[in-house]
Design a protein that fits this description.
Oligomer: heterodimer
Largest sheet of chain A: none
Strand content of chain B: 15-25%
Distance between the termini of chain B: 40 Å
Helix content of chain B: 25-40%
Number of helices of chain B: 6
Shape of chain B: flat
Shape of chain A: globular
Radius of gyration of chain B: 24 Å
Chain lengths: 163, 325
């Protein structure tokens, strides 16, 4: 926060950021329910420390970092739980809701959550490879691999549809 | 192909959001906190009742007969039958004599998880005869302890909800091994330190050290997965294939066909696979589930056609543990 500039209230921040965060998380997870849970928890963590957090320069960045940390933990837990076959997968409704002719969305649905996360963070939110690596808890080289895989898969799907 | 950024923006705009209002946010938050308080209360009552039951049980039984616990717990002696209790009885060493360990343990949680430190010396000898083991999962508190004829006491236990320590190694003298094997001193898997009732003379090295397995298992397939390709290792990057060439083929305790590699090789493998887009899971405390035991890791991948890879540890008797996958 710049000197003299007043920090926004949590209420204003929530209204400004909630839709963007929900859309980002929905595309990454493929589930609106999961996206809402992650957004709820990310906002809750900020709300409970708002006196401190509210003074930060980049509040949206902090919100994204918090949400991505939660996504990481949840994704890892889910992978482990799946191995134990004791996990009920949340409904993947985001990509199913679109019509078949929506090729772009269908192509994105073919990617894994990690690939989508790497792509959304770098391409839609503009984070660098290093920043994305920090957000996802992986090396920048892995971010590159994931985005490369994602772009290749998207290209293949879109070209196959065009043909 | 259109630019990826605008394409993503387009897809995000098309997501049909459900109402997510500030009022709803506060309602959900209040509800969660209320549920947490209720859960905490229920757990508190359960713990109180359980403690009351345990205290009642302890009052009725001889504590030196073995560790207290539920039906799942209790040490098992696996050593030769001819070894009797005897020469060192409770009167001499006394289960109430506390050895140096309780004052010199450090915190098992600070020992870390996952890959051993670079240059760490693997536990020796490679193989060990298991003479006694104890494990249990009682009141949500998981532990496992193995005693070997060569004096190694290797154990792990839950240190906080959802978190278990990695495998910890201590060294006993032959006298210490005999005290535990004979039952003169109970092997207390449920204690903070399973050997805490041993006398000073029972310890060759009471220091808590991370157990560094001499071998790790690399498992490429789900147990009993008959549809798995015959050699999934062939699908790995060439560098990884080269590293695994010639490794011993083993089958672990849950039936996964695996390759046995050294700690250096498993470290290199993690490096190679990370560069290829795999992600290491389990090299952090937060990722250790309680009920599967410690020491294992998993590398997950999004690469089509490749399975997740489990990395698990050998104990000296050949037992295998993973993080519960």
């Amino acid at each position: 926060m710049h000197p003299g500039q007043e920090s926004p209230s949590f209420e204003v921040f929530f209204e400004d950021e909630k839709d963007r965060l929900l859309r980002v998380l929905s595309v990454i997870t493929g589930s609106r329910g999961e996206a809402e849970d992650l957004a709820q928890e990310a906002f809750t963590r900020m709300f409970e420390r708002w006196d401190e957090v509210g003074q930060m320069d980049d509040l949206a960045g902090y919100l994204h970092r918090t949400a991505m940390n939660l996504f990481r933990s949840q994704y890892r837990r889910a992978r482990v739980a799946l191995k134990r076959a004791a996990f009920s997968t949340p409904e993947r409704d985001v990509f199913e809701a679109v019509e078949e002719r929506d090729v772009a969305t269908q192509a994105l649905a073919q990617l894994t959550p990690r690939q989508r996360a790497a792509l959304v963070l770098t391409e839609a939110l503009g984070y660098s490879g290093e920043e994305t690596g920090r957000l996802l808890g992986i090396k920048p080289s892995t971010v590159w691999v994931l985005t490369h895989q994602a772009r290749s898969a998207l290209k293949a799907t879109l070209e196959a549809t065009d043909a | 192909m259109p630019e990826t950024g605008p394409l993503l923006e387009l897809v995000m705009e098309r997501v049909e959001l459900r109402p997510f209002t500030l009022e709803g946010f506060h309602d959900r938050r209040d509800r969660k906190r209320r549920n947490q308080r209720i859960s905490a209360g229920v757990v508190g009552i359960a713990v109180f009742v359980a403690l009351a039951l345990i205290l009642g049980t302890v009052g009725l039984s001889d504590r030196t007969q073995g560790p207290a616990g539920g039906a799942e717990t209790g040490p098992t002696t696996t050593g030769p039958a001819e070894t009797g209790p005897a020469e060192t009885g409770p009167a001499e060493t006394g289960p109430t004599v506390t050895g140096p360990v309780s004052g010199n343990t450090g915190d098992p949680s600070s020992l870390g998880f996952g890959l051993p430190p670079e240059g760490a010396t693997p536990s020796k000898p490679l193989r060990g005869e298991l003479v006694m083991k104890d494990s249990g999962s009682d009141l949500g508190s998981w532990y496992a302890v193995n005693l070997y004829a060569d004096g190694r006491l290797i154990w792990s236990r839950q240190i906080s909800p959802g978190i278990v320590s990695r495998w910890i190694e201590q060294r006993l003298t032959p006298e210490g091994v005999e005290l535990l094997r004979s039952g003169a001193v109970p092997l207390g898997g449920e204690f903070e330190n399973p050997g805490e009732q041993l006398p000073v003379s029972a310890w060759e090295d009471p220091e808590l050290r991370p157990y560094v397995p001499a071998r790790y298992g690399v498992c490429f397939e789900k147990p009993h997965d008959e549809n798995a390709p015959p050699s999934l290792a062939d699908l790995l990057p060439a560098e990884a294939q080269e590293l695994l060439r010639g490794a011993e083929h083993v089958v672990n305790t849950w039936g996964c066909r695996s390759l046995a590699v050294t700690p250096e090789d498993v470290r290199s493998l993690v490096e190679i696979l990370s560069d290829a887009g795999f992600e290491l899971i389990g090299d952090q405390r937060e990722e250790q589930p309680v009920d599967g035991g410690p020491g294992g890791m998993m590398m997950v991948t999004d690469l089509k056609g490749l399975p997740d890879i489990e990395l698990w540890t050998f104990l000296p008797d050949g037992a295998t543990y993973s993080v519960g996958f």
